[in-house]
Task: structure prediction
Amino acid sequence: MTKSIKLVGVGGQGTILAAKVLCQGLIEAGYDVKMSEIHGMSQRGGSVSSEVRYGKKVYSPVIEKGNADILVAFELMEAARYMDYIKPEGVVIINNHKINSMVTLNGKVPYPTGIYESISEKVKTTMFNASELAVELGNPKVANIILLGSLVKAMELTDIDFEKIIRESVKEKFVDINVKAFKLGLNQYQG
Amino acid sequence: MKKVMTGNEAIARGAYEAGVKFASAYPGTPSTEILENIANYKEIMSEWAPNEKVAIEAVIGASIAGARSLASMKHVGVNVAADPLFTFAYTGVTGGMVLITADEPGMHSSQNEQDNRNYAKFARIALMEPANSQEAKDMLVEAFDISEKYDTPVLFRITTRVSHSKSLVELGERINKEVIPYEKKFNKYVAIPAIGRQLRHTVEDRMNKLAEFTEQTKLNYFVDNKKKDLVIASGMSYEFAWEALGDSVDYIKLGFTNPLPKNLLAKHAEGRERIYVIEENDPYIEDFCKTLGIKVFGKDLFPYTGEMTPDVIKKYVLSTNMESFEVEADKVVNRPPTFCSGCPHRGFFYQLGRRKNAVVSGDIGCYSLAVGEPYNSMDWLICMGASLSSGHGAQKIFDLDQDNKKRVVSILGDSTFFHTGINSLINTVYNKGNTINVILDNRITGMTGQQDNPGSGYNLNGEVTEVMDIKKIVEAIGVKHVRKINPNNLEEVKETLDWAFGLDEVSVIITDWPCVLKKKYMDKDLESYENVFRTKNMVLQDKCVGCKACLRTGCPSLVFNKDLKKVSIDSASCVGCDVCLQVCPFDAIVKEA
Result:
């Protein structure tokens, strides 16, 4: 059975690195894996999404609406934006962190409220502030690996040696903090 | 060895394994990473060309000189490259030649959805369509064999999802392809009419041979699931169809698609209950099936636009809609892409937005983001390099009205100027135009992800190279009124716009400040851009009155707090461009110490 993971966020949040590490782990575990992302204008503060699908044999690299087993939102409002992708029996992990868009920045339109409440009443939801935890660890950029840790726990992929993959995927001076971030993320997920 | 690769990485690997010696491209989403990855293989000479026509011409030369060679571009790039392609289709190749076209069903980052498979039919050349990364690599190697055996350029058509999705690839070894010793072949390569008339027959013979090949090749095959219905598909649509329909249907998978295999199609179409042609963009395969008298469901059933993703296929073939939650409109606001903090385009568009009589002729690049809030600047945007030339034509018509106050401001970037903007500027000067032309020189090709260009000082291999001096080029073309300004200096921008609007002859304004994402600098650049992106600004909270004047610069580092009615600056993203500082009427914005 093919599983589908959708990672969403805002350009620059490191969704792609998280998806890459995930992909590599799944491959080393012997799965067929496909990953998809849309490049282009997304890096200029736009909404971004990476999709990872794995199983015995995977055909489509893209996830259909209503077919994601897990949605990991690196930013609060992005969770709401991609709600139509999650399966009714799926899981949502939300980083409780807000990034303004051009329209909310200038105060004309308010940043939406009640997002967590609306999502958690429909589907199993875990929310915590990975961005704050990352700052506490000493580098705001590792929020993505914290979220990866939670995702790995939620998808029961803890048998895969992701620490090794992280070691191979990030620059040496960032290895320790990323490994710490991953472990922290594992413990944040309360299934 | 197996590796997970994007389609673009796999194509680069395929080029390496095929023994390619020369590759050229102009960046364009979703094709850009092909050349960036080819550049990692030192066995291949790889180059950024200023435009797609030049890229394919360099590649044609390399093929004539006996080397396997490759050009890659996005779909609209092939329009630019079409002229040499159609004649090279007549002459044929010496070293194998492949042109990669990256099409964009659904238009994720493009202005249109043209189906470049039509080019293969139009130019009478071979066409191949891989469905995933493994096929992208393997089929590219085979494309070079086909090119040489049948003496044809090969059009290699990928789509966004093939380019940018990752899947597993079994790697192979590089074939050692020696350069074929050069011989002058007047009757093959000198495309004068007398030779063209002979080559026209050669082309027809070649297509007849390829019509036999397409029936025999393993690139086209039947998948027998012992079912009554048949799906005919190529490229990513084939993967999507399997995902949606699995083994509930039989399949014909088409990898070699010009010419199409009529016998294979006719044979397996017989006695079917239903036949579906699943393809993105045009009814290319469908129309061919109809010429064979095969009754198929195609664009009459499926949408004529967008991607044929599994949900679309399920909806139209199985009449099943996936159950899904609705996105609640009040929980989401738009997040459009915008100029980065510190983007040198901000200061210019801030000032331009204050000119009510400006008609803005836009172009392709990051500055197209000025279409949105808060700039709303741009009256039209057509294609690469069109800003200067379409602006010229429009101004000529506006000026028919003696009382005309409208001034056309044509805007493009450095890379777009080198691409085809130079020709457009020549046209304006030659034909006594009087437009205001702005070259936003950020010293890099920005939108596609910071590729070097003739003005950046580096080539694709990171070697230092000649820097084309845009000001000198403009002056050499004959523009008498040229100014080079710092776009972050709002007073200078305003004064320069006053100057240009006051002239009744053609003028060129060059804004000179680097892209905030540019990574490599030459020493002399670092000297001229003093303290570039090394400072930060802050808001003195006691001085801020919440007037929001600074927010009109549209900088994402500025945050308005509704409760406090004050603005603050996100220190992590601010790079100290000082645009907001100059806008603040209360001197509440200062440099961080």
The two ends of chain A are 21 Å apart (CA to CA). The mean pLDDT of chain A is 93.
